[in-house]
Amino acid sequence: MTAIGFVTRTTYGGFRGQLKLLPVCADIDIVPIRDKSGDNPADFRIFTQGLEVGSGRILTGETYGTDYVSLSLAAPGLGVRKLCANLGRTVGLNGDGSFFLIWNPVD
After folding, report:
1. Contacts of 92 by beta carbon, 8 Å cutoff, 6+ apart
2. E strand spans, the chain
3. Rounded CA gap, 86 and 103, in Å?
4. For residue 95, how many other CB atoms are within 10 A of its CB?
5. Residues with Cβ within 8 Å of residue 100, at least 6 apart in sequence
6. Which Pfam families match (predicted)?
7. What is the structure's pLDDT at 94?
């Protein structure tokens, strides 16, 4: 399991932290979408420096049936492939509102 960043829960229901890759270190905001529409809308939008670079969805795990946030990012600095990650709790670090961004490679 490779952590590629760290975020904390914000008071408005989103997350704020950093995405940390070898060529990229960017502050990110994961903002909840309050006015969703369509068949399969995202639950979050991901921003860095005022630009939207991805989205997130709340999914339910198959094994334990617990909810988690799955992220998908795409930007020129990341290359031609999209970057996928899940938010994973940081047990014992900075309280219950802290999460690692866990890299989830796609084929």
Report:
1. none
2. 3-9, 15-20, 25-32, 44-48, 51-60, 67-73, 83-89, 98-103
3. 7
4. 9
5. 3, 5, 6, 87, 88, 89, 90
6. DUF736
7. 58
What tens digit of pLDDT does each residue of 4-58 get?
888 999 998 999 999 887 677 889 999 999 888 777 789 999 999 889 999 999 9
95 versus 10: the higher-pLDDT residue is 10
Question: Residue 31 CA to chain centroid, in angstroms?
Answer: 10
- For residue 69, the model assigns a pLDDT of 93
> What are the structure tokens assigned to 71, written together?
């992220």
Count the alpha carbons within 13 Å of 67 in the hemisphere toward its beta carbon.
Answer: 5
